[in-house]
Amino acid sequence: MGNDPCFLKLAYWPEDTDKQPVEGLVPGMYLPVSYVRLLLKDDCTRGVQAGSQARLLGYEQVERYLINTQFIELVKHGLAGTVGTTAEELHSLVQDRIERGQSVVLAAERSRESVRARQKRTRSRGSKAKRYIHRVYNQDSLF
After folding, report:
1. Across the strands, what pairs with 10?
2. Does the predicted TM-score (pTM) go above 0.85?
3. DSSP letters along 105-140, please?
4. Residues 77-88: pLDDT tens digits?
5. If we measure between CA atoms, which residue out of 64, 80, 73 comes closest to residue 3?
């Protein structure tokens, strides 16, 4: 989908996790880092005070984003993330980000399974097949 396999997730956390415990993936928006770079240069993310250099990223500023289920589907189909990346390449990427003072979250799958077999397996455990019931209603002719 692009030359930048990194995504930023802006997560929504409840104010009081004692009353609303977080289970599973928290809601939020996934944004490709290359898109975030564009947004941070766009006036749509400018702060509300006149002349402010502050930038805001949220539902009111960002019109297009991915949600949990969409992002998961992209990963399952190999359209997000990296496939076939070597451990050395990942190490280099992590080192580069750390040296720039950036945070890194990294997940790696180690398997002897081929890419094709993994795609087949992940697609098979996706959403349940949708069944549509089609009904035909006879209508008297209008003419």
Report:
1. 29
2. no
3. -------S--HHHHHHHHHHTSSPPP----------
4. 777 766 666 778
5. 80
